[in-house]
Amino acid sequence: MAEKGSGFSIFHPVIRIEHREFYEAILNEISSISPVCNQARSTAAEISKDSAEEELIIDLIKKVEDFSNELLSVTKNLFDQFYQTKEKFYESMLMIMAYNKINLMDRNLLERTCDVRWWSMELAFTYCVERYNQVSSEARDVDQTVMGLGEQLKDNKKAVESIDGIREFLKPTTWLKDKLDDLEHFHTHVEEIYKCLKEISKENLKSKIDVFLRDVKDCCNAAAFASSRLEDIVNSYSIYRDLIITGADGNVIANANKDKRSVVLGLKVSDEAWYESATALKDGNQYHAQDVSKTKVEDKPSLVYSTTLREGNSPRGKITGVMGVFFDFQSEASLILDEYMPKDKNGVIQDDCYSIFTNEQGVIICSSDEQTIPSGNYMHLPRWHRELGPGDKTCSYSVIEGRESALITAKTDGYLEYKGLGWSSHVIVPKSHIFEHENSGFELKLDRDEMMESCLIPEINKKTYERIQEYKESIQLISLNGIVFASKLGKRGAALGPIFDRITKTGDYATNKMEELLIEMAEDEFAQNAEALETFSKQAIDLIDRNLFERSADIRWWATDTIFAKALEDHAPESCDAACERLKVINNSYNMYRNLVLCDPGGQVIATSRTESRGELKQLDLSNEEWFLAAMRTNSFGQFGVGDVSHSALERHKETSLIYSGGVRKHGAREGEAIGVLGLLFDWDNEARKVLESCLQKDQEGKRIKGTQAFYTNGKGKIIESTDRDLFKVGIDLKLPEEHASLGSGTSFSGIFEYEGKRYLMGTSKTKGYREYKGLGWSAHVIRPIDD
Amino acid sequence: MRYSVFTAGNSYYGIPIQQVQEFDFEYKLSPVPYADERISGVSSLRGRIITVIDLRKCLGIKEGNEPRRRKVLVLDSLQLCKDYDTFDERFSKDVLGVVVDRIEGIVDLDFHHSLDIERSKKGNFIEGVVNHEDKVLNLLSFPLIIQDIYKGP
To answer: What residues in B contact A501, CB-CB < 8 Å?
Structure first.
């Protein structure tokens, strides 16, 4: 109970009132045996003819007393077992939940690190940064010359004013933001100065200003184009609040968020931690993740990924600028915190339940209840919760917001090459919740014995069940023998009859009650396992939805690349080679794709990231494939196509492929008819199987439970991937129980599933999509066998 | 009259309580070589040899699952000799046990007030059939069974 290893106390507050009554009833019954036995002893003395007869009766009575004492201790153990198993089970479920949350976050953040590194290579950005650096050095040059003149002309009031005007304009904040509206003003000032200058100085200044004016226009256009590309990204990936590009001097040149642009452009961010850390990176392939903190760019605390832009786009080139990616951490984190929590009937997290992320210092960075446990404060945690190693989980009990609660902490261990920022996930649930008798509406179509024999039931409970039945039979036999014996005594034995009747009744009552309790425990065990399987299936569908959301964002953004548009427009070999090169570079950063292909409107491949198979792919006619047709139908950049998991001519040797597709438009435009299709061959079977395997049910030591399997079905009930391709063959139509097959979007169900002569407990969750990704009507199923 | 009621397969059987000496869990038995197949084996009960027969086999019952632990009904041979004149006197010195599936308990049957009694000679060993609380009880005659076993085939 509260302290590990302490014994059972029926007075412990978590023990349910029904159980206390239950226990008292058994106790009363069994203690009533004692006076009955005493009465039997005196009766025996009265009626026996000789000592042998008396001994026989007393021997029987003694046996009854022994059994009833044992029954009592078994009852105590039974309750103890009941509550401890339940507590352990919940602890392990909550730990998995806490860990899953931080893992979901890490998986998301890993995608962000791919994004930031890849985007920084976008030509529009490197070009704009180079233009900016050039112009700003020219501006500095002009500024210095003008400043020198200021000394010379300090007596001429008008000239001083003009010099100030010119210097004001030379600040990047001015010329970047005002988009050169002020140019006329600038010219007036310049003319004013020219008037005061000798021919030589005038020519000198004039040549500098002319160069500056020539380049500033170019630079502003490049910056505007960069901003519009950044906007495209943010529109494709809705999980960013802003993207920022700065020059080598730390001034912001371009950003994605239109509303903030007037404030952000020209802002000097060179003293911010994310910027400084980025400039300290050794090469262009590295990135820096800045933990949630205040920045000048946003009002809210921001989570910033930053990387450098390099000269000539080469990883070792000179740093020309910095890209900062402002992830919408709060909205993503609150989505995750909200998941898997106990909800009331309106779908709101129940009172006194909290889910929280803290950073490495133990400061709350996001909370499911910002009013009660707000961000920015230190979280009150026991020391060992603060000293966890990567991937560790722990649970303890303490009073939180006035309620005795279970506090679970799980620390990040990163995901793949992303190491995480040392964050922890915490889940708080009132202790009473653990022991509440949840009437989850879970109904078993199994009878008692079937249920008790299931391998879901812990061995110890099965043994207790057997023992209780043995006690029941033993007591029954003793009383029967007593009655037989009494009847042989004839009239003398009449007094013994009622005593043994009473013993039989008491024994039956107590053992029946205990059987009931064991059955209740078994039902709980089933219900808990069903709930666990539901949770795992939900995790499986969520993980794949989030992954596919990223894929749908990728396709939308990549399809706007002008290199692809050019190859489709002119079909020139060098344009196609350039497109191949581009696809190759993308595929290297994003290795969850098996292949990327660019097709012309006739369904012929003109470029691929797998250049070695270019010739072979060229022969194919893909014009009838679902993904191709879907992409050709798109007419705006927000749309994408996807075919259900099926066979594709693109992968002759693979049973199944999952292909995302986007329409490429003229000059990479956002609207208009598609002039070709970009197809992404997602490495579906491997990625899906990895996710499924991570969602299999594990025991308390973290070992995979024997016989547990997981699989995905598509909207038509066809298996599209499974953890055991022999047992659950990909492509077969599965006859799912009605409740599992007819689930609504975002809902879960658990029940019994019979397959190939074996019975399983199965949890199913149907996709609800993720953000603007609507899902494809798939379901995830996680099963474990009921029988050995 | 008080009867002890027990089961084998899906049917209920009863004998007068006087004919029972005691009830017990099934013993570990030693098989008897070349004995009738209805004899399960012998064991020792408080220093005396007890011969145990199997009710399922005696009545040719195959249906229903056997419970995990079956029960033994030890017969009161003296009483059997008293109740049945035809029962061979030499059995009165033997201890005889019968393995049954379950022991249901002891019931009071009042034949005079019941019209359910039906003395149809069903098989050789059943003396009658009685309705008791929606159950059909077969009243058994163990002397007939035992003599049938020892008569030999």
So the answer is: none
Per-residue model confidence as pLDDT tens digits over A618-659: 899 999 999 999 999 999 888 889 888 888 999 888 888 999
Is residue B25 within 8 angstroms of chain A, CB to CB?
Answer: yes
Q: What average pLDDT score do residues A167-194 get?
A: 80
- Chain A residues close to B23, C-beta within 8 Å: 477, 480-481, 484
- The domain segmentation of chain B, as residue ranges, is 2-151
The answer to whether residue B70 neighbours chain A at the CB level (below 8 Å) is no
Strand order in the sheet with B11-16: B102-108, B2-8, B11-16, B135-140, B126-132
Chain A CB within 8 Å of residue B108 CB: no
A vs B, Cβ pairs < 8 A, gives 34
Look at B17 and A484 and tell me if their CB atoms are within 8 Å: yes
Same domain? For A55 and A93 the reply is: yes
d(C-alpha A19, C-alpha A518), whole Å: 12
Q: Which H or E element spans position A397?
A: strand A393-400
Is some CB atom of chain A closer than 8 A to the CB atom of B18?
Answer: yes
Same domain, residue pair A400 and A348: yes
Length of chain A: 788
More confident residue, B13 or A151: B13
Domain boundary among A623, A658, A687: A687
* DSSP 3-state of A501: helix
Query: Beta partners for A310?
Result: A319
**CB neighbour list of residue A279: distance below 8 Å, 6 or more residues apart:** A308, A319, A322
Q: Does residue A170 belong to any structural domain of this protein? A: no
Burial class (CB within 10 angstroms; exposed 0-12, middle 13-18, buried 19+) of A538 = buried
Q: In chain A, whose CA is at the least distance from the CA of B2?
A: A487
Flag whether A371 is in a domain: yes
- Does one domain contain both A679 and A715? no
Q: Contact A481/B23, CB-based, under 8 Å? A: yes
Same domain membership, residue A674 and residue A703: no
- Inter-chain touch A477–B103, beta carbons under 8 Å: yes
CATH of span B2-151: 2.40.50.180
Tell whether A682 and A701 lie within a shared domain: no
- Say which of A470, A480, A488 has its CB closest to residue B103: A480
Identify whether the C-beta of residue A432 lies closer than 8 Å to the C-beta of residue A350. Answer: no
Distance from CA of B34 to the nearest CA of A (A): 33
Number of domains into which chain A is organized: 4
Q: B68 to chain A: which residues are within 8 Å by CB?
A: 466
Q: How far is B84 from chain A (nearest CA, A)?
A: 18
Give the nearest partner residue to A484 out of B20, B25, B71, using CB atoms: B20
**Domain span at A596:** 559-687
Q: What is the DSSP letter of A345?
A: T
* A653 and A751 share one domain: no
CATH of the domain at A736: 3.30.450.20
Residue A624 buriedness (CB in 10 A; 0-12 / 13-18 / 19+):
exposed
* Domain stop point among A667, A687, A707: A687
User: Nearest-CA distance from A467 to chain B in Å?
Assistant: 12
pLDDT single digits (tens) A355-404: 999 999 999 999 999 999 999 999 999 999 999 999 999 999 999 989 98
This prediction's pTM: 0.82
Band (pLDDT 50/70/90 cuts) for residue A437 is low
Strand order of the sheet with strand B39-45?
B20-25, B71-75, B95-100, B48-54, B39-45
DSSP 8-state symbol, A123: H
Phi, psi of A47 (to 5 degrees): -95, -15
